[in-house]
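Reader question, answered in our methods column.
A reader sent in the components of a multi-part assembly and asked whether the whole thing could be modeled at once rather than chain by chain. We filled in our standard form and ran it. Here is what they sent:
COMPLEX SIZE: two components
ENTRIES:
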Amino acid sequence: MTRVAIVTPYHGEPLAWIAKAHASVRLQTHPATHILVGDGKPEAAIDGWDAQHIVLPAGHRDWGHTPRAIGALSAAAQGFDAIGFLDADNWFYPDHVASLLALQAEQDLEVASSLRVMHHVDGRLLHLCQLVDGIETFDTNCMMLFPPAYSALPVFALVPPDVRYIADRWVSIWLKRRGRRVGCTGKGTVAYRVRYRYFYETSPLPMPTEHIVDLKIPHPRELRQWWLALPEDEREFHMKVMGAR
Amino acid sequence: MRIAVVTPYSDEPLEWLRQGHASLADQGHAVAHILVADGRPDAEVAKLADQHIVLGRRHDDGGNVARMAGGLSAASQRFDAVTFLDAADWFLPGHLAGMVTALEAAGADVATARRVLHRIDGTPVGACRQVDGLRTADPSGILLAPTAFSAIALWCLVPQPVAGDAAQSVLGYLQGRERRIVAAGPSPTLAKRVRTRAFNAGLGATPWDAWLVDGDLPDPTAVARWWRDIGPEERARQFRRIGIH
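And here is the structure of the entire assembly that came back:
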């Protein structure tokens, strides 16, 4: 049976949210090992869960990307056949892992992706996300990597500091540039709890009163402009740090 | 230059860890000591650490996952260099200053050190003739500049048959990615405590006999032979997995 690890970084999210994420991993129709990585705010209760628990002493302030890389590389070293990700505020629908594995088996993929379903901060269902298509645009929660793609894992932690909050975007660029085979199930199997202020500001929903994040994800065109504005030697340096050169 | 020194530990005597930690004071460079508990966190060891990472389960992999976790965390924190110090080893005075001088003088991405072998009770035996820092390396004798940080993942991505001596594959990866490697020297500056029973034969009883292990010191040239003998197809598969292609 394919051995699957799911990595969840956490840093101060409500324990009830982390428990919901964990329960959704435990309830997958294909079993998965849950690796939780505390990024500076460890929850002692997790030591009692049926999970692996890594505790980092200080928050890396990079939206979970460094703990994500550490948890995932730990899974790679343990010989897991597939590695997925789940943020502490989200959860999976029960067939998420099984549907990704089925797609990989059918198409011999190196990266499989799902779609995501938007949920309100309070948990209620909103709609299928229109932005993430699993081919051109990924969400980390939707991705599952197979061993030929494991070399992308350190990129999560090594992106340039100014843009580390979108390290997942860099990982997807790295995978595409390296010609990794990518496919999407076309199914929304990730429940994505939307916490972005701009999302509510541009919707008819009332603004939630807590757990809101004031961050705007840039358009890919903006990221490209930022990159091309860097001096060439600086771009070369960042490429080497990430292992892209 | 801000240097992070990463030490994995599991059940080594506190005295050994204190000796390694104390050796950092004579390096001619301020360092941050990151200690990584591989499944058995120790409150006394944590007191030595500038940062203390806890892996909730023991990996029994010679410290590879722990090296990766501490190293990638340090890389993400943008230390100027990352190096490693095994729990049984220590640095001779000026070791890091010599590594940094060699690194900067050569404009290199990586500096390596030669080693002096010691019996389990700490008595020196002599310079190691197998590890030269260019064709072969010791895990405690590798200092990485940022342009070599992607090699930190190799501690976890090395193929299982050669994971027991992962330092050789880390060195091979760096060579494969055309990083400049300089061997500091010519004198060895790394003190290596050898725990194998055969190496310590004739020493008589010591307080450390419980920490003796069977087998011989790994033959670093065996890893190169393994890579050569697996054949081009399997080698290409492994290169893809670790990120050389």
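What stands out: The CA atoms of residues 6 and 84 of chain B lie 5 Å apart. The domain at 3-242 of chain B is CATH 3.90.550.10 (Spore Coat Polysaccharide Biosynthesis Protein SpsA; Chain A).
Send us your own complexes using the same form.
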